[in-house]
Amino acid sequence: MRAAVVRSFDHPPRYEEFATPDPAGDQVLVDVLAAGLHPRVRSGANGTHYTSDGRLPMVPGVDAVGRLPDGRRVYFVADDDAPGTMAEQAVLDPRRAVPLPEDADPVVIAAAMNPAMSSWVALRRRVAFKPGQSVLVLGATGNAGQMAVQIARHLGAAHVVAAGRDPERLAMLAGLGATTVVPLTGDPEEAAGRLGEAAADVDVVIDYTWGAPTQLAIPALLTRRTERSAALDWIQIGSMAGPDITLPSFVLRAANLRIMGSGQGSLTAAGIVAELPSLMEQLAAGTLTAAAQPVPLAEVERAWTAPTEPGRRVVLTASA
Fold first, then answer.
1. In the chain, is it the N or the C terminus that has fewer CB atoms within a 10 Å radius of its CB?
2. Res. 48: pLDDT tops 80
3. pTM (predicted TM-score)
4. Residue 320 confidence (pLDDT)
């Protein structure tokens, strides 16, 4: 079969021949219709993701929409030890797959499920989120952050603060459900102060940045809270700004801060998959929106480095 193949962590994948995977046990071989080029896929392909084992060659891709041998279409999350999904064919475990509604666009589903899943699962599985609470999305101008703004409002958030650096994307977020937008441009200390004023009393933070923005944001929020004993659940999902922070000890004593992660390992695969049908339903119905940029799989090397329009996710497809 033909696939996107990584032979060096320093070079984008190339479209070339690769051995067709053999299903084992209950696995099924499917024809891949669409696979999203997510940040998680990029980090796996360059060897920097925390799950990377350094083995090459490899086929990237963590999820896809595929067609089963009987013609049914499904969205599936690839097994951790299976070849990736950016190929003409891939193996799936039926326990990690959910059927597509008849009217669902496979390209949109492939573009949206991964970025939407991060906040959907975090708010439904990692915290006891209740309608009427408020949410800060830190790093809201990325694709996952834009989905998080929509999802927080859909799940009943009364107030959603969206913070990010890209002014063009930040301007779009009011139309997606943000009640307050905070630019994180200019002097970092001043940006943290603006964020603290706007989001001091939120109940949940969905954090896609980590690094310096989070390091400054945590004390900026906590020192401005009206009631410091009110719980603040800080959910760490991404690390766009860096993998580490320095956390002053006083913030853990002076406020009711609860820091947790949401991702592979902090949630079971079964727990994640259990959330997919309800998320799929909202995406298929158009309640949650995502913009996709389809590119033929054969053009993967170009697509890997080509610029994309703001708010769009590249999806590699079986055909043009």
1. C
2. no
3. 0.88
4. 44
